[in-house]
Amino acid sequence: xxxxxxxxxxxxxxxxxxxxxxxxxxxxxxxxxxxxxxxxxxxxxxxxxxxxxxxxxxxxxxxxxxxxxxxxxxxxxxxxxxxxxxxxxxxxxxxxxxxxxxxxxxxxxxxxxxxxxxxxxxxxxxxxxxxx
Length: 132
Known about the structure:
Layout: H1 16-24, H2 32-43, H3 47-60, H4 65-77, H5 81-94, H6 99-108
């Protein structure tokens, strides 16, 4: 193999959305430190600090649904229900089988229908995170 080509990657028949996410994601590890700090602050009932850490985690890695779900929990504790609902809608559109997001949706919005998988609408990556 010529050195200018480099190693070849095996391409398997995979979901194009997953391939796109892997290509666009700078690192699989981005955001986990912020999420961990947010969980620590959430456990100490420092909700404003937790919210800022989760917001940063989503900014660093918008493809990780857990970060959005944790951010929604902090927003619920801060009584920012509209933004929390928006985040959980995004999670449930992308991952309809997400257990924690489903439980939160059932608990806080029992009369509302769950978002449909892949439904168009708001940007599910949280690009308008700084709105609150």
